[in-house]
Write a structure and sequence with these properties.
By secondary structure, the protein is mostly helical. It has 3 domains: 33-118, Tetratricopeptide repeat domain (Serine Threonine Protein Phosphatase 5, Tetratricopeptide repeat, Alpha Horseshoe); 121-188, Alpha Horseshoe (Serine Threonine Protein Phosphatase 5, Tetratricopeptide repeat); 191-288, Rossmann fold (3-Layer(aba) Sandwich). The protein has 14 helices and 2 strands, in the order αααααααααααβαβαα. It has helices at residues 2-23, 40-47, 53-65, 69-82, 87-99, 103-116, 121-133, 137-150, 155-168, 171-187, 191-206, 222-227, 240-250, 269-288, and strands at residues 211-214, 234-237. A two-stranded parallel ribbon has the order 1-2. Helix 12 links the parallel strand 1 and strand 2. Helix 2 packs antiparallel against helix 3 (53-65) and helix 5 packs antiparallel against helix 6. The longest helix is centred in the first third of the chain and has 22 residues, at 2-23.
C-alpha cells in the first residue's frame, strides 16, 4: 500500500509539471513564468507597477492553478479594483465561485467576462460546461454552439456537445459531434501547445531522456501521436479508455470536480490516482521491463 502511494505521488508531481509546461495555460511556457510559491510572477506583481491589472490577473491564475482559490479570489478582486474591465479576472472569479459551489456568482462572473470579451470562444465553452455540470442542457448547447460559431476549428465544443447529447439520450447526435471533435483535433493542434511539446522534446533529447507524454482524460491519444509522427524517444500514456470505463461505471463526478473542457475537467483525488497509476504503469512497462530480459 505504501509503495503504491509513493509511486502515485511521484507520478503526480511529474504529471503536474508536465501538463503545465506543455499546455501553454494562463501563464504560458512561452512567457517563461515559473509557477511555484515565491515565483517570478509573484515578485513581478510586488516589485513592478502595482497598478498593472494584467500582472495581478496572472498572479490570480497562479494561485488558482496551485489549488489556492481563496488567495486567487483576493487577487482577482484586487485586479478589478485596478481595472474593472479585466475579463480574465472575472473569468477567474467565475471558476473560483464554481469550485466553492456558489453557482449564482459563478454564472454572473462568467457572463461579465463574456460581456467584456464577446468573441472569446473559450469563455463560452466554460459557461457551457458550467451549465452542463448543472444539467441545464439547453443553455449548455447554446453556449457550445456560440463557441463553434466564433471558432469553427475549435474541437472542444463538439466534444462537449457529444457529452450533452449522450446525457439527453440522443446518441446519433452525440456520435456525430464526437466524430467531428476527433477529426478537428487531428487536423488542428494549438500552436502554443505544439511548440512547447517540441521544445520540451528538444531539451530532453539533448540530455538523452525519454519523453513521456500523457494525454488528457477521456481524449484520444491519436492527435498526440500525430504530433510526434516519425520521431523516436517518445512514450505515450493513453488516458481515454480507463477514464471512460470507470466514469461509465461509477459516474463522472467520482473523478472530476468540474467540466472546464466540456468532455472532461480537473480531476479530484480519485481521478489523480488513475492518472498517476496510468503514468507509472507505462513508465514501468516501457522503461524498466527491458532490464528483466
Amino acid at each position: 500500500m505504501k509503495k503504491t502511494f509513493i509511486k502515485h505521488k511521484i507520478a503526480l508531481i511529474f504529471f503536474g509539471i508536465f501538463l503545465f509546461i506543455v499546455t501553454g495555460s494562463k501563464q504560458g511556457f512561452d512567457k517563461e513564468i515559473i509557477l511555484e510559491p515565491g515565483s517570478e510572477i509573484s515578485k513581478t506583481a510586488v516589485n513592478t507597477d502595482r497598478r498593472d491589472g494584467n500582472i495581478w490577473a496572472q498572479l490570480g491564475w497562479h494561485y488558482m492553478n496551485n489549488s489556492n482559490p481563496n488567495q486567487a479570489e483576493r487577487v482577482f478582486k484586487k485586479t478589478l479594483e485596478i481595472n474593472s474591465q479585466n475579463y480574465s479576472a472575472y473569468e477567474g472569479l467565475g471558476l473560483v465561485y464554481f469550485h466553492k459551489k456558489n453557482f449564482l456568482q459563478a454564472e454572473a462572473m462568467l457572463k461579465k467576462a463574456i460581456d467584456i470579451n464577446i468573441f472569446n470562444e473559450k469563455l463560452y465553452l466554460e459557461l457551457g460546461s458550467f451549465y452542463l455540470w448543472q444539467s441545464k442542457f439547453a443553455q449548455a448547447i447554446e453556449m457550445y454552439k456560440k463557441a463553434i460559431e466564433i471558432k469553427p476549428s475549435y474541437s472542444e465544443p463538439y466534444a462537449a456537445l457529444a457529452v450533452v447529447y449522450e446525457e439527453m439520450g440522443n446518441y446519433n447526435a452525440a456520435g456525430e459531434c464526437r466524430s467531428k471533435a476527433d477529426k478537428l483535433s487531428q487536423e488542428y493542434y494549438n500552436p502554443t501547445t505544439r511548440r512547447n511539446y517540441q521544445k520540451l522534446k528538444e531539451i530532453l533529447d539533448t540530455k538523452g531522456i525519454k519523453f513521456v507524454c500523457a494525454q488528457y482524460p477521456m481524449r484520444s491519444i491519436e492527435p498526440l501521436k500525430r504530433l510526434f509522427k516519425g520521431q523516436e524517444g517518445v512514450i505515450f500514456v493513453d488516458n481515454e479508455k480507463t477514464f471512460k470505463e470507470t466514469s461509465k461505471i461509477n459516474g463522472y463526478e467520482e473523478y472530476f470536480v468540474d467540466r472546464f473542457a466540456g468532455d472532461f475537467g480537473h480531476c479530484n483525488r480519485r481521478g489523480n490516482e488513475i492518472l498517476a497509476g496510468n503514468i507509472v504503469d507505462v513508465i514501468l512497462k516501457e522503461c524498466f521491463d527491458r532490464y528483466k530480459k
